[in-house]
């Protein structure tokens, strides 16, 4: 009769122990791995959001001639964290020290074009090119879980880093800037 009472408690302890191991001990739940790391950037051509600048053509990343280190930033006007990271991207696009070292391109994810244009007019435009991903297919090809996400592409078109969530000044300084510096060498 006692086994009937002990069995549910033992099962609960076993399940709780498994979840603790999986979430705390064995993994860092804040990291989402990418299968694209060290692989060529996905090949795609996205129509431009703005008439004054090109869309995103990642086929140019792997054309055989080295280019600049590129940040591919997936964003949307309806995304609150995108608004949080936007000043960092804007500062980078205007920083003479990095302007010649990196190219920032945007992939506008499942957004209304007029809303995205108004958002960029209000907050500023840090991008050298912006492609429209109206149906979300490009984000799927990148393995994106949501917005914002940013990928660092080396000079030979390979994905070297993936940032899930907004880029803060600390993340830029401590993680992404050192990667960009290393890739420039």
Set out the fold topology.
Elements: H1 2-25, E1 45-46, E2 56-57, E3 69-75, H2 80-94, H3 96-99, E4 102-109, H4 113-123, E5 129-133, H5 137-142, E6 149-153, E7 159-164, H6 169-184
What does the model show?
The strands form 2 sheets. The protein has a 5-stranded mixed β-sheet with strand order 5-4-3-6-7. It has a two-stranded antiparallel sheet with strand order 1-2. The protein is an alpha/beta fold and 185 residues long. The longest helix is centred in the first third of the chain and has 24 residues. The protein is elongated and about 75 Å long. The chain is built from 6 helices and 7 strands, in the order αβββααβαβαββα. 41% of the residues lie in helices and 19% in strands.
